[in-house]
Amino acid sequence: MDQFLPAIFVSIVVAFVVIKNIKKITEKMDIDALNPYDKYASFSAHIQEYIRDIKKEINQDDKSDVIFALLDGVDLEKAQEKLSDFIRKLVFFETSMAKNRSKQQIENELAQLLFDLDSFIRENIENGDLIADKMKKDLQSRFEELIG
Questions:
Q1: What is the rounded distance in angstroms from the CA atom of residue 92 to the CA atom of residue 49?
Q2: pTM score, two decimals?
Q3: Pick from 99, 113, 92: nearest CA to 37
Q4: What does the pLDDT look like over 22-47, one tens digit per residue?
Q5: Sequence-separated (6 or more) residues with CB below 8 Å from residue 143
Q6: Would you kindly state where each structural domain of the chain is located, as residue ranges?
């Protein structure tokens, strides 16, 4: 009987710890289940940072220290408008209206936008191929962080 009480006490403590950990895990799962679109909104915000950097740098007169410089002959106003269109489309993924779409629809729309952004960079920015490849790797890594 003397060993029975400590064994029960240890069992109760272990059960308490296990229940508490299970509760934490299930709460996290519930949060993820309720807010799956937050991942897309976060990814969208990350893409917008890239686009804002591009917009800021193509406006600079001094092109010596910029990563994103327009190719000669590219119309600055048209490039800025195209980048603004990308941002407007990305803001949609941060709104509650995006929740009315399926994950598949959102992922398809994001993929199309990324394809268009990649094309824009390759066609309009100096060293566009290198920059687009670097951006693609960074965005892929960021997406895997959010989803994984």
A1: 15
A2: 0.73
A3: 99
A4: 666 655 554 455 466 788 888 899 99
A5: 43
A6: 1-34, 36-147
